[in-house]
Design a protein that fits this description.
Blueprint: E1 4-15, H1 18-24, H2 26-47, E2 50-55, E3 59-64, H3 67-82, E4 96-107, E5 112-113, H4 115-126, E6 132-135, H5 136-142, E7 149-156, E8 165-171, E9 195-198, H6 210-229, E10 234-237
Parallel strand pairs: 4-6, 9-10
Antiparallel strand pairs: 1-3, 1-4, 2-3, 4-5, 6-8, 7-8
């Protein structure tokens, strides 16, 4: 069968820290991975009308005719993994990283090739353990069709891709983000005694001779008189003039 080109949604997945897990317990890790693939990942791909192109030892490459199906499958896999292996310590759990891209590929019977596949693999490498990263074209296609939140990670320069790739992280995997409830500011405690703030006014009459009698008294004599009375808890004085507004 000669190779053909087609537009497809590519899902790339691998196990975070696979070499470390294999080094700690080779046979146990291998059996656990087989169980995850057979019981969760592969059935989810089939459920969402995807096709497993190939297994990669610690992960897999799959394609979907629908990018919506691809992202939905990725989210359901990651959500399903949360509840698996509850008895295993967190540092020893198997956690997938998943990347999803939409691109034109060269398709053969046993494999798919092209930049679209390479970008999906690079997105997977950028994902956190248990996380999903998608390209901008994927985000644009599904943002109004799926109730997921996407965090913009900006343009990323990735290996063997000529141009930067705009990357988005799927957040909360469909769980609504809890917004903190707004809290009303607490009122300040009232002082035991009255408080007065003295603001000097700019003379707007045009007669500068009046500055001496009014402004100086406001800034000097009045504060001293009020303070000496001992009936105030605080006294604030502003040194710079405040221009009064004329009322119409």
């Amino acid at each position: 069968m000669p190779p053909v080109r087609r537009l497809t949604a590519i899902l790339a997945a691998d196990v975070a820290g696979y070499s470390r897990l294999m080094g700690a317990n080779e046979e146990g890790t291998h059996e656990r991975l087989k169980a995850h693939l057979g019981e969760l990942v592969n059935p989810k791909i089939a459920e969402h009308r995807g096709r497993i192109v190939k297994n990669t030892g610690d992960g897999l490459l799959a394609e979907f005719a629908s990018v919506v199906d691809a992202v939905r499958c990725a989210v359901e896999v990651q959500r399903g993994m949360i509840d698996r292996e509850p008895e295993v310590p967190e540092e020893r759990r198997i956690r997938f990283r998943i990347g999803v891209n939409l691109g034109d590929v060269i398709a053969e019977e046993e494999d798919i090739f092209g930049d679209g596949v390479n970008v999906a693999a690079r997105l997977e490498a950028l994902a956190d353990p248990g996380g999903i990263c998608v390209s901008r074209v994927v985000r644009d296609q599904v943002r109004d069709r799926l109730d997921y939140t996407f965090e913009d990670l900006g343009d990323q320069q990735v290996k063997n891709i000529a141009r930067p790739v705009r990357v988005y992280r799927v957040r909360h995997l469909g769980v609504p983000i809890e917004q903190p409830s707004p809290t009303s500011p607490q009122p300040l405690p009232l002082p035991d005694k009255p408080s007065i703030a003295v603001l000097p006014f700019a003379n707007m009459s045009g007669d500068r001779s009046r500055n001496i009698s009014l402004t100086v008294w406001l800034r000097r004599s009045l504060p001293r008189s009020l303070a000496s009375a001992g009936c105030l808890s605080s006294l604030a004085i502003r040194a710079s003039p405040t221009r009064a507004r004329r009322s119409m």
